Amino acid sequence: MGKLLALMLGCAGLTMLLGLLSETMKEKPVPAYQGRGVELWVYDLKHGDARQRAEAAGALGEMGPQAREAVPDLVAALRDDDPLVRRQAARALGRIGPAAKDAIPDLNRALVDPDRQVFREAMLALRSIEGRDKRKGFLAP
To answer: Taking the model in full, what pTM does it have?
Structure first.
């Protein structure tokens, strides 16, 4: 009887352990926009066509803080030759918010971009990331 009880307790314990393991091993949902994950949009940030790069930056912005792993790539896009790509990259960094704090120095440099819309988006991004407006009195180029 003692062996049977030990076997039953062992099986129950094993079942409980397997249940706990399956709960902890469940895959977390991958952030996506229009059915594509962050990695694919980051790949498109390097595309030869500026419109596709701008679309990728915009999509990452739509993902918000879930796209925080794309911050280094969006920072690189702030130096793109095309102003639309730079605008979208700055906007995306702002939508990612405080998780994009590593982009602050690059966004500060974007404040002197010759494109006024890049300046505007960089200003808004800095407000979003820093949580307040530290740039009062800064004149647009």
So the answer is: 0.74
